[in-house]
């Protein structure tokens, strides 16, 4: 290799192109039914940080393909990504993106800026446009802590690689409309971390309540949403027992009041 | 009629080895040693940005001495290899032994096939789940590879530095004590006795208890504090009697 690239994807393209997602596309026609779909993801910022949460269900048509799927991934010390849509390619994209950020950091001796990370992801999503055209649509939701401005930020994408910065909160996936409505009613600008987690859990509950492709907290099997929090101290996955405790509170709250907390009218 | 120039292979190899040794001896050394929490890597390095110590992968660190562009090349090669391996299989399928072998092969080929050998000496260290699983490999300019136990010094007068290390090394020493041992050894390079300050040192650890990526650089205030703690502990250990080093300091 001559004066080499710091991009893992570019390097892989030159030495092992067959390892890239979407390298071999089906001949023609929609083939989106070949891999399960992953659903609702929510992200919300709070003073000093950002949170990313995902339900655990994957569906194939009307069948539940997986009950404890992982859709939320730590990408580096100050960022995380979650995917909705075609699970097979989405997970691969997340893995590749994780290596991409780490690779750059090791090659260059410093991390990309948060903007740089968000733009790189946009390029990678755009690179999979061929896949999207064949029915394998996967959409990431990217969050990170911006060390320059000391705040959490949220970036959403479309299938062609369009990158949009979202303010305060966002949700993607089939249950996202319900989740977003729920967050909208519960969100305030002064949430602390624990309250933000509760808002995320309430919103995922609402998504699961109305969207059959989103899984709610599974108290019997002890399967709860995955929640990553990023602050100036870096990335942290909320321990399963803490999520279990808060999720159980949410479920118990709904037993008394099925529609959950509401916004004040005054 | 001019005679074809003939040099015996033995002579050729010897010349190359001498050349490489001389080149390496011009620079400062680096040491890698176990401590109670993992593996400590210390290099005598004035630059804050041109590193002699780096992360190769989750559990694997790299330390090098000699010509910067040459070992930087090896470092980038190692990062690429490790990242492809980890992406292709699993993160745990990347090992220090693999990387050490690849470096040994590369350096061996360069040494025997090209006119100018690379003037580098490197260490690949992998922190395991327990101290017994730690691996430290030293690879020299000709591709020789040695599996080291506990500690290793590379660089110009690595024999001398290594001897000092051996006297003081304890695999279960706290970080500040291990750092004190390392700087003490590095300060005695070429038979001289210097005082190494935080600004001269590049320090990193492979921290066993850390999640995911074990490599972490130590600099700034944390480094200064660790150096001071180490010196204080060493003074107490030597029974309050000031050592030569301390006298020079006070």
Structure characterization notes:
The complex is a heterodimer of chains A (266) and B (250). Chain A is an alpha+beta fold and 266 residues long. Chain A is 35% helix and 26% strand. Chain A is built from 7 helices and 13 strands. In chain A, the strands form 2 sheets. In chain A, strands 1, 4, 5, 6, 7, 8, 9 and 10 form an 8-stranded antiparallel sheet that branches. Chain A has a 5-stranded antiparallel sheet with strand order 11-2-3-12-13, with helices on one face. In chain A, strand 6 and strand 7 form a beta hairpin. In chain A, helix 5 (176-186) packs antiparallel against helix 6 and helix 6 (193-210) packs across helix 7. Chain A is globular, with a radius of gyration of 18 Å. With 250 residues, chain B is an alpha+beta fold. Chain B has a single domain (10-237), classed as Glutamine Phosphoribosylpyrophosphate, subunit 1, domain 1. Chain B has 7 helices and 10 strands. In chain B, the strands form 2 sheets. Chain B has a 5-stranded antiparallel sheet with strand order 8-1-2-9-10. Chain B has a 5-stranded antiparallel sheet with strand order 3-4-5-6-7. In chain B, a hairpin with an 8-residue loop joins strand 5 (120-126) and strand 6 (135-139). Chain B is globular and about 75 Å long. The relative contact order of chain B is 0.17. Mean pLDDT of chain B is 91; it is low at 241-250. Classes of the chains: A alpha+beta (266), B alpha+beta (250). The interface between A and B is medium-sized, with 17 and 15 residues.
A few lines on this structure:
The complex is a heterodimer of chains A (266) and B (250). Chain A has 266 residues and is of the alpha+beta class.
């Amino acid at each position: 290799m001559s004066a080499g690239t710091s991009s893992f994807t570019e390097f892989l393209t030159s030495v092992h192109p067959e390892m890239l997602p979407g390298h071999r596309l089906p001949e023609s026609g929609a083939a989106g039914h070949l891999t399960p779909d992953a659903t609702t993801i929510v992200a919300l910022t709070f003073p000093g940080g950002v949170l990313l949460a995902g339900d655990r269900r994957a569906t194939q048509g009307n069948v539940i393909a997986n009950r404890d799927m992982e859709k939320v991934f730590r990408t580096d010390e100050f960022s995380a990504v979650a995917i909705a849509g075609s699970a097979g390619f989405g997970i691969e994209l997340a893995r590749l993106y994780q290596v991409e950020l780490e690779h750059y950091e090791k090659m260059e001796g410093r991390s990309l800026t948060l903007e740089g990370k968000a733009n790189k992801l946009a390029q990678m999503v755009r690179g999979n446009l061929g896949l999207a055209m064949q029915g394998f649509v996967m959409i990431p939701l990217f969050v990170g802590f911006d060390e320059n401005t000391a705040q959490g930020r949220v970036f959403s994408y479309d299938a062609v690689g369009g990158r949009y910065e979202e303010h305060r909160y966002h949700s993607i996936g089939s249950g996202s409309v319900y989740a977003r409505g729920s967050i909208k009613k519960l969100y305030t600008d002064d949430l602390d971390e624990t309250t933000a987690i509760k808002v995320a859990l309430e919103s995922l509950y609402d998504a699961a309540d109305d969207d059959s492709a989103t899984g709610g907290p599974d108290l019997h099997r002890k399967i709860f949403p995955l929640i990553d929090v990023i602050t100036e101290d870096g990335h942290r996955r909320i321990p399963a027992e803490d999520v279990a405790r808060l999720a159980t509170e949410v479920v118990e709250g709904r037993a008394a009041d099925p529609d959950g907390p509401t916004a004040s009218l005054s | 009629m001019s005679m074809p120039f003939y040099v015996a292979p033995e002579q050729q190899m010897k010349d190359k080895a001498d050349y490489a040794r001389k080149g390496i001896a011009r620079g400062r050394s680096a040491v890698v040693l176990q401590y109670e929490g993992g593996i400590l890597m210390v290099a005598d390095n004035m630059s804050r940005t041109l590193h002699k110590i780096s992360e190769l992968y989750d559990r694997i660190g790299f330390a090098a001495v000699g010509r910067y562009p040459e070992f930087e090349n090896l470092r980038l090669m190692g990062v690429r290899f490790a990242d492809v391996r980890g992406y292709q299989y699993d993160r745990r399928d990347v090992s220090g032994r693999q990387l050490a072998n690849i470096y040994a092969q590369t350096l061996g080929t360069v040494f025997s096939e090209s006119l100018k050998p690379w003037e580098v000496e490197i260490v690949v260290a992998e922190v395991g789940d327990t101290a017994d699983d730690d691996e430290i490999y030293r690879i020299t300019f000709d591709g020789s590879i040695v599996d080291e136990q506990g500690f290793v010094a590379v660089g110009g007068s690595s024999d001398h530095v290594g001897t000092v290390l051996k006297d003081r090394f304890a695999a279960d020493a706290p970080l500040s004590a291990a750092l004190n041992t390392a700087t003490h050894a590095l300060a005695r390079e070429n038979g001289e006795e210097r005082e190494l300050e935080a600004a001269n040192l590049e320090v990193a650890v492979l921290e066993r208890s850390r999640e995911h990526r074990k490599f972490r650089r130590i600099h700034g205030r944390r480094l200064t504090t660790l150096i001071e703690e180490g010196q204080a502990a060493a003074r107490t250990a030597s029974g309050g009697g000031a050592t030569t080093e301390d006298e020079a300091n006070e």
